[in-house]
Amino acid sequence: MSLNEIYSELIRYHNKNQLNKKEIPNATISERGHNPSCGDDITLHLKLEEDIIIDAGFSGIGCAISQASTSIMIDLIKGKNINEVENILNTFLGMIKKEVEDEDQLNILGDAIYLRNISNMPARVKCCALPWHSLKVSLERIK
Amino acid sequence: MINYKKDFEVLQKEVNGSTIAYLDNAATTQKPKQVIEAIRNYNKNYNGSPHRGAHYLSIKATEIYEETRKKVSEFIGASKSEEIIFTKNATESLNLLAYSYGLNQLKEGDEIVLGITNHHSNIVPWQMISEKTGAKIVYIMSDKNGQLKKEEIESKINKKTKIVSVSHVSNTFGIIHPVEEIIKKAKEFSATVIIDGAQSIPHLKIDVSKLDPDFLVFSGHKMLASMGIGVLYGKFEKLKEMSPFLFGGDMIEYVDLYKTTYEEIPYRFEAGTQNVEGVVSLSVAIDYLNNIGMENVENKEKELLKYTLSRLKDKHFIELHGGNDTSYRTGIVSFNIKDVHPHDVATILDEYNIAIRSGHHCAQPFMKSMGFNSTCRISFYFYNTFEDIDRFIEAIEKVRGYLGYES
């Protein structure tokens, strides 16, 4: 896989612009995710009304892949209810583990589908999956 | 300048049209063919359980094992080979000291003095001991270049101090700490001094008879030998104050149903079947280094360091750590590239077959004290060349472009 595929326009855009990097006032839940081996340390903030994520953001530091993956995930889950988000989450983690390969199923991932290539890079899979694991823990806590 | 790469097959191997510029020697060094062949030769001709059998192979394995103990003691200037204990690595050596020395010696009101630049292996075991004994941990802080401050050494080591445990060379910035001063100060208060030599023994000539620490630890795999072999040096009088660390196997004298007496030093600290092939690798590694001469190893790395710093200093996108005074630096260069996380730098350089380290380098307290989370680190050994550095410099010019920034 070439570097231009890894550091695609999408990853560069999200990493540089940091659009979703923000604290959420009165967040319903904030969940920190940390990769001890590399130092990526990101906290995901979610604000819910009923079972809908009405706002989300993140704080912390990490590499371009972890930052972009978090930002893309936030774009994807905002405005969706818990069941929809859980479905997206399971599909994403399935894609990264190469357990879900059905294109129709993967379509619900929107831009996050472009993170698929990272699953071929053992050294960087953790960076990509970090915010998604924080989302998983958040959903478990909400339930 | 002699090119030693001919002895290192992994450094000659081509991947996607180029060889690897291996600049991650602080993590682990490569093994020369002499070491690889010696391990093969041992397994082919001499493999036996040491200290246990009456047969030829066991006796040969015992001879090799004990001859290497003597060789290690001579390599570091120990007064006798019984002061050398073989462990798995420097981390195990430090854990051994924490359990077998610290746990017995410390109590509430005592203080353990650590260097802020210490590797986690020289912090976490002491935190465990602190929790169990009530002894307090105190840190000697560093200046902005990562050098342990003189005034901190003066003030933190005092009558409460019972153990001082510091890295000789910081694995993050490659700073050589003033261990002579630290040892002198500790002795004023009869404190025990442990030196983590993981990043110094492979690169500098160390003579414990002159330096005079109570304990010194290091790992074989950072000095051309295999992974899984490490050393704990201890003054014999200090070793006598210690209880065994691991129990069982051949570390015993007599075992009754409910009571056991232990073997002599150093055997009482070497439970279970030992890593003789690792010891063989360490023996040949020491021969190899002695053949080059440790002064030559140090000088070569210093040349590489100076060359690298001169090539990096005018690059506007590079933030260099550790200062410009190369008199107290080894061949480690830690840096950051503006706007780019070190992990991304490492991934991009890997594409050019350049191996560097990125992250917190298992020294999180130090990194936090310096105000950052992670760095890129290149680290040399005597087999590196100016060409490796030129390739590295050429590649880092391209890094920011991949992340969409102008160079």
TrEMBL record, chain A:
Signal sequence region: none
Gene3D superfamilies noted in UniProt: 3.90.1010.10
Boundaries of every NIF system FeS cluster assembly NifU N-terminal domain copy: 14-124
GO biological process, any: iron-sulfur cluster assembly
GO molecular function: iron ion binding; iron-sulfur cluster binding
Domain of life: Bacteria
This protein's name: Iron-sulfur cluster assembly scaffold protein IscU
Native source organism of the sequence: Gottschalkia purinilytica (Clostridium purinilyticum)
Protein encoded by which gene: iscU
From TrEMBL, chain B:
Pfam families: Aminotran_5
Needed co-factor(s): pyridoxal 5'-phosphate
Keyword Transferase: yes
Aminotransferase class V domain ranges (all copies): 22-392
Catalytic activity line of the entry: (sulfur carrier)-H + L-cysteine = (sulfur carrier)-SH + L-alanine
Alphabetized UniProt keyword annotations: Pyridoxal phosphate, Transferase
Top-level EC class: transferase
Enzyme Commission code(s) on record: 2.8.1.7
One GO BP annotation of this record: cysteine metabolic process
GO MF term set: cysteine desulfurase activity; pyridoxal phosphate binding
Classification via Gene3D superfamilies: Aspartate Aminotransferase, domain 1, Type I PLP-dependent aspartate aminotransferase-like (Major domain)
Family: Belongs to the class-V pyridoxal-phosphate-dependent aminotransferase family. Csd subfamily.
Protein name from the UniProt record: cysteine desulfurase
Species whose genome carries this gene: Gottschalkia purinilytica (Clostridium purinilyticum)
Lineage: Bacteria, Bacillati, Bacillota, Tissierellia, Tissierellales
